[in-house]
Design goal:
Helix content: 25-40%
Largest sheet: 5 strands, parallel
């Protein structure tokens, strides 16, 4: 079974290789406005149950959820798996870790 978390380095490698995946940002709009991972779809955690249909087309793809530090995204990934998204994963360490390991010049908060 696919691990519930994916490291920043592994996600970066998948993106570089053109892997078929979708990145979901489960932070709030004000957080997303500060900094975002390019191509990520904003879908706040509190809205996820009402808006999960927006992800239906991605049910069989890798869905990587991220937040600030990896706590909310872990909850979101677990919930998505319960909804049938078997390849849902949480970005370990969130966008904060991404800024440290992948995009050093990225704004942090």
């Amino acid at each position: 079974m696919l691990p519930l978390e994916i490291t920043c380095r592994d996600l970066h490698a998948k993106l570089a290789a053109g892997h078929d995946l979708v990145i979901v940002d489960c932070r709030e709009p004000d957080e997303h406005a500060i900094v975002a991972i390019e191509g990520a779809v904003l879908l706040p955690l509190g809205e996820l149950p009402d808006r999960v249909a927006e992800l239906a087309a991605h049910r069989n793809r890798l869905v990587v959820v991220h937040c600030h530090l990896g706590v909310r995204s872990l909850r979101a990934a677990r919930w998505l798996r319960e909804q049938g998204f078997a390849q849902a994963q949480s970005l370990a360490g969130g966008i904060e870790q991404w800024a440290v390991e992948i995009e050093a010049g990225m704004k942090r908060y």
